[in-house]
Amino acid sequence: MESQDSDLLWQLAGVGFSYGGQSVLRNLDLAFAHGQCYGVLGANGSGKTTLLDLLCGLLAPRSGTVRFGNRSLSGWRPGELAKKVALVPQDFVVRFGFSVREVVEMGRHPHLGRFAALDDHDHQLVDGVMEEMGIQTLADRSVTRLSGGEKQRVAVARALAQDPQVLLLDEATSNLDIFHTLSILGAIRRRVDEQGLTVIAALHDLNQAAFFCDRLIFLKKGHLICQGSIDDVLQADIIHEVYGVDAQVRLNEFSGCYHVSYRMPSPQSSVHHL
C-alpha cells in the first residue's frame, strides 16, 4: 500500500449519498486503521451496504471526500484497487455454471497479467482458502447447484483468494449455520491478528459483532450515532437509540465476550420506532 507509514487506510469527511433524491448517508466522518476489525451496525435501511459500496468504489459520494491510502479513492483504477480490497456482497450471484474452484480462482484475476494463467503460487493459495472455508469437496460442483450457505462460503473463499489488505463483508454469514459461521469468522479473525488484515463487516447480530470485532460503528437512517471500542459503545442506551428495543449487555464468562439480551418490544414502541 502506498501509505504504509500511516495507520489510516480510509478517511471519510462529510460524506453523503442519496438514491433518487432520498438521502441514505448524511455527513459521515469516519476513519479506518490497518489491522482492525470494524463492525457496521444499524437497522434495515441505515446505510450499511451503501457505506461498503462507497468504500470499495462501486459508488461515488454525492458530497464529501473518501480517501484511501494517500489519495482520493476516485484516483484509484479499479484493477489497482482490486489488489487491495475484496468485497463479499450480501447477494452473491454467479449466472453461469462455473465450478466452485473456477469461481474461487477468479479471486486471483486482479493479480494476473492479461491472458496470464495461474501459477503454482496461485493454485496453492486457492487450495488453502478452499480448505479454510471447508469447500474443497465441492471443487468440481457447479455453483448453480449449491445451497445458500455453500454459496456464501464460496464468496468468502473467492475474496480471500484475492489476498487483499482489506476485506469488506456485507452480512457474509447470514445464511450459515453456527459451526460454519464460527469457523469462517475464526479464520478471518486469525488473518486480522496474524497478518494485519483489515475487516469492515456490515452485521445485524450484535453478539456476533461482540465476538468478532474490535470496534463498532452504529448508523441510524444514514447518520453516525457513535463509533468506538466494544467496551465504549456496546451499551444498552445506544442499542435502544439505534434499534428501539430494551437490551441488557453483560460479559459472558463462557465465551469471554459481551452478550446482548433483549426484551420483546411492545406494539406501541414498535409502531413508534418504525
Verbal overview:
The protein has 274 residues and is α/β, with parallel strands linked by helices. The protein has two domains: 1-84 and 165-243, 3-Layer(aba) Sandwich (Rossmann fold), CATH 3.40.50; 93-163, no CATH class. 33% of the residues lie in helices and 28% in strands. The chain contains ten helices and twelve strands. It has helices spanning 48-55, 78-82, 100-105, 120-132, 148-161, 178-195, 206-212, 230-233, 236-243, 267-273; strands at residues 8-19, 22-33, 37-41, 63-68, 71-72, 85-88, 166-170, 198-203, 215-220, 223-229, 246-251, 258-263. The chain has a six-stranded mixed β-sheet with strand order 6-7-8-3-9-10, sandwiched between helices. A hairpin with a 6-residue loop joins β11 and β12 (258-263). α4 (120-132) packs antiparallel against α5 (148-161). It is globular. The N and C termini lie far apart (43 Å). Mean pLDDT is 91; it is low at 1-5.
Q: Give the helices and strands as they follow along the chain.
A: EEEHEEHEHHHEHEHEEHHEEH
Distance from N terminus to C terminus (CA atoms, Å) equals 43 Å
Structural class by helix and strand composition: alpha/beta
pLDDT average, as an integer?
A: 91
Q: Biggest sheet: strands side by side, in what order?
A: 6-7-8-3-9-10
Q: Per the principal axes of the C-alpha atoms, what is the gross shape? A: globular
Low-confidence stretches: 1-5
CATH class of the largest domain: Alpha Beta
CATH topology of the largest domain: Rossmann fold
CATH superfamily of the largest domain: P-loop containing nucleotide triphosphate hydrolases
- The level of helicity is 25-40%
Number of strands: 12
Radius of gyration: 19 Å
Q: How many distinct domains?
A: 2
Strand content: 25-35%
Q: What kind of sheet is the major sheet?
A: 6 strands, mixed
CATH architecture of the largest domain: 3-Layer(aba) Sandwich
